[in-house]
Automatic annotation (TrEMBL):
<dbReference type="GO" id="GO:0016887">
    <property type="term" value="F:ATP hydrolysis activity"/>
</dbReference>
<keyword id="KW-0472">Membrane</keyword>
<keyword id="KW-1278">Translocase</keyword>
<keyword id="KW-1003">Cell membrane</keyword>
<dbReference type="InterPro" id="IPR003593">
    <property type="entry name" value="AAA+_ATPase"/>
</dbReference>
<dbReference type="GO" id="GO:0089705">
    <property type="term" value="P:protein localization to outer membrane"/>
</dbReference>
<keyword id="KW-0813">Transport</keyword>
<dbReference type="InterPro" id="IPR027417">
    <property type="entry name" value="P-loop_NTPase"/>
</dbReference>
<dbReference type="GO" id="GO:0005524">
    <property type="term" value="F:ATP binding"/>
</dbReference>
<dbReference type="InterPro" id="IPR017871">
    <property type="entry name" value="ABC_transporter-like_CS"/>
</dbReference>
<dbReference type="GO" id="GO:0022857">
    <property type="term" value="F:transmembrane transporter activity"/>
</dbReference>
<keyword id="KW-0547">Nucleotide-binding</keyword>
<dbReference type="InterPro" id="IPR015854">
    <property type="entry name" value="ABC_transpr_LolD-like"/>
</dbReference>
<dbReference type="Pfam" id="PF00005">
    <property type="entry name" value="ABC_tran"/>
</dbReference>
<feature type="domain" description="ABC transporter">
    <location>
        <begin position="2"/>
        <end position="222"/>
    </location>
</feature>
<keyword id="KW-0067">ATP-binding</keyword>
<protein>
    <recommendedName>
        <fullName>ABC transporter domain-containing protein</fullName>
    </recommendedName>
</protein>
Amino acid sequence: MIEVQGVKKRFSTPHGVVEVLRGIDLTIKTGERVAILGSSGAGKTTLMHILGALDRPNEGSVQFEGEDIFALRGGALDEFRNQRVGFVFQFHQLLPEFNALENVMMPALVARRSRKEATDCAQELLEEVGLGHRLLHKPGELSGGEQQRVAIARALVRMPRLLLADEPTGNLDSGTTAEIYRLLERLHQERGLTMVVVTHSLPLAQRMDRMIHMDDGLLVPV
Ligand SMILES: Nc1ncnc2c1ncn2[C@@H]1O[C@H](COP(=O)(O)OP(=O)(O)OP(=O)(O)O)[C@@H](O)[C@H]1O
């Protein structure tokens, strides 16, 4: 279970302080799939970054399975992020000079898994996302949907409990988008992952267990 309580986030800019999250309370059950909808600038990405411990709130707390993550000290917060959370972004951020297999292996190698273990795990995941025949292709040699499937495989290589996807299909056509969502649904069923997905697409959001709307830094009733 994830419990977000009283989370506020502001950024200081040369033009003054911007209040981006103005008091977020949210509970997400383990294994639940939540879609976050909302207009541009509502604070969705900022909330995702805080859920994944990529950024800290100014006020409030986030508990992950009973642990207050922002109370973690030293390397423990990095460890939490690296081991428990997988990220998929709209622009997948694959490394262009490495092939699909190497891109997926990378987080496992960084986590000091052996080369053999990382290769086997990456290959298995790429097969699971339907790219067993594209292991040695570089991102530039793959379609947009294939690149996003590599990014999903990479997000899963450290066996996270939580998958955060920020507009994962934002730059894909509708057929490819539906395919990515089917893949996310299958991964959810097979792995019991908790998923939080930011999307602008209502039909896609409706396929999740729950929809949440954000407006101007607050959650608003649907
Ligand atoms: N590092 C930052 N410094 C200053 N302002 C920021 C920073 N990051 C985000 N903001 C501001 O916070 C607001 C919310 O941004 P955020 O990216 O969370 O919105 P969003 O709901 O994800 O929008 P979109 O749908 O367009 O991606 C925006 O007005 C943005 O300009």
